[in-house]
Amino acid sequence: MTVAGQAGAPGAVASRGQRALKLVRRALGLDVPPPDHTIAILHSDESEAPGLDRRERAQLDRIRLMGATGTVLMAISALGIGAQPVHQNPTSGMRVLGIFARAHTGSLAMCMVGTVTVVLAWLLLGRFAVGGLGGSPLHRLTRRQFDRTLLLWIIPLCVAPPMFSNDVYSYLAQSEIAARGIDPYQEGPVAGLGIDNVLTNNVPNIWRETPAPYGPLFLWIGHGIAELTGENILAGVWVHRLLALAGVALIVWALPRLSVRCGVAPVSALWLGVANPLVLFHLIGGVHNDALMLGLMLAGLEFMLRAIHGIPGNGGPPPLDGRGWALLIGGAVVISLSSSVKVTSIIALGFAGMALARRWGPGLRPILAAAGLLGLIAVAVTVVISTASGLGFGWLYTLNTANAVRSWMSLPTALGIVTGFGGVLLGLGDHTTALLSITRPIAAVVAGFITVRMLVATWTGRLHPVGALGVSLGAIVLLFPVVQPWYLLWAIVPMAAWATRPVFRAPAIGISAVVSVILMPRGADLEVFQIVGSAVATVIVSLLFIVVTRNALPWRAQQGVSAPSQPAGAYGGTS
Asked: Which of 51, 265, 279, 528 is deepest in the core (most CB within 10 A)?
C-alpha cells in the first residue's frame, strides 16, 4: 500500500463518520432550519373576532336546539339498544319504557338519526367557531355561548344508559375485586367474583378472565366507588359517569388556556376538542376513563407551562421562586397521576421537561437535570399511589392486556390482517399472527422515533410543547396495536389547542364525524336488515331536514362566516 493510501484511510473513515453524524442529527431534527420543519405547517396564529350578529345568533339558537334534539333522541333510544346491564336493568318489564328494548329496529333508527343530527349540529357550530377551513371566522361565538351550547348537549347523555361500549361494567367488576382485597392485576372477574356474580355477568365475555389493564389510581378510586355502591350497578354507573364528567371539566378548564399559549382562539380549541362528537358519545355516553386521563394530563401541562413560560400577556417567563416551583412540581404530580389512570399520558412529562431544559439553557446538562427532577417526581408519585392503594405494581405487567383485540383502526394491525388474508387467498396459509408479531414491533419503533423527534423539536424551540405532544400522541395512537375510536382523542384534544391549518383540521373533523356516525350502539344483537333499514331511514330524514332548513341554518358558506384574509396575531403564543 502506498504512503498516500495509508494516509487517506483515516481521512475516509473520518469523512464517513461525519456523514453518519450529520444524517443522525438531521434525522433527529437538530440541523433542520425552522422553515423546513414540516410539522410546523400545521400551526398558524388565529385572530380575535367580534361576536355574532343578530342573524347569526338566531342561527346559533337553532343549531343549539338541533344538537340538543339529537342527544335527546340518542338518550331515549339507549333505553332499547344502549349498553344496558344484563342484571338490574331498570327498564326491564316496564310497559312504556320497555317498548324500546322490544323494538330494536325503531330504536336503532332513532339512535342513528340522533347521532347524525348531533354531528351535523357540531359541524354547523364550527361555522361560528373556526369558520371555513381556510381561515378564521369573521364573527365568532363567545365563550359563554359555547358553554351554554355544550352544557345543553351534554345533559341528555348524562342521564342516558351507557352507549357504544360495555367498558364501565368491567370498571365495576375490577373495582369490586379490589374492594374485596383480591389483586385485580392477577385475577379477572370470573376468578375474583365468581361466574354467577351480577357484576361478572355484565362484563363482555372477552374480558371476563383477563386482569385489569388500568393504573392504580383509577382502581383505587374504583375501590372507593365499590365501597359506596356495592353491587348496585345503576349507582356504580352513575358515579363512574360523574368521574368522566370531572375529567371533561378539567379538559374544559385547561384546553382554552393552552390554546392561548399557542396563539389559537379558545372557542376554536373547545369546539374541536370538547364539543367533538367523540367526546360526547364515548367519554360521556360511553363512560370511559380516558376523560380523566386527558383532563389530568392537560391540567398538569398547563400548570407546568405556567411555571416555565408564565401567563400569556404578562411579560416574559416568571422567576422560578416559591410559587413557580410549586406550579412546576404540582403540574408534574398531576401528570403523574394521569399516568396512574392510563400510562400513555406520562410522555407529557417529557415535553414539559424539554421546555424546562430549554429555559435553563443549551447543552445536555439542563436536559439531564430536568429529566432527573421530573423522573424522580413521577417515580415518587407512582410508588406512593401503588403502595397507598394496596394494589402494588402488578399493573406494569397487564398493560398489554388489550392487545388480544385485533383493531381495524390500528395501522400495524390492519396491515398484518390484510397481508395475512392475502396469504390465505394465495393458498399460503393464515400467517396473520406471525405477521402481527412483525408489524407491531416495527410500528412501535417508528412511534418511538417520532416521539424522540418531537422532543428534540420542543427542546430546540421549533415546536410548541403542546403541539409536539399532540403529534407524538397521534403517532402513538395510529401505530398502537389496538386503537379504539375514543383513543383518537388522545391526539385530537391537545392538537386542537395548537394545530389550526386545514391539513390537520380537515382530516380531524372528517375522521371525528365519520367514526362517530358509523359505530353501532351496543346492548342489542342487530341483524343486517335492521342496520340497513335504519341507515336508509336516517339518510332520508337527514336529507329532508337539510332541505327544509336550507335557509334557516348556515349549510352553505355565506357572508360573514369566513374571512380567509383576516390578519392574525391577537392571541399570543410563547414559543
From this structure: 279
pLDDT averaged over every residue in the chain = 84
Short-list 554, 541, 504, 515, CA closest to 138: 554
d(CA 558, CA 52): 13
Question: How far is Cα 296 from Cα 299, in angstroms, rounded to an integer?
Answer: 5
Q: What is the pLDDT of residues 482-501, one digit of tens each?
A: 888 889 999 999 999 998 88
Q: Which is nearest to 350 in space by CA: 465, 447, 236?
A: 465
CB 343 within 8 A of CB 398: no
Whether 162 contacts 285, CB under 8 Å: yes
pTM score? 0.88
Of 560, 562, 566, 545, residue with least CA distance to 54: 560
CA 255 to CA 308: how far, in whole Å? 17
Q: Which of these, 126, 41, 44, lies nearest to 471 by C-alpha position?
A: 41
Cell of 501: 391549518
Looking from the CA of 175 toward its CB, the CA atoms found within 13 Å total: 28
Burial class (CB in 10 A: 0-12, 13-18, 19+), 341: buried
What is the number of alpha carbons within 13 Å of residue 187 lying toward its C-beta?
20
Backbone angles phi, psi at 557, to 5 degrees: -60, 135
Compute the half-sphere exposure of residue 166: CA atoms within 13 Å on the CB side of its CA. 20
User: Given pLDDT bands bounded at 50, 70 and 90, which one contains residue 407?
Assistant: low
SS3 call for 136: strand
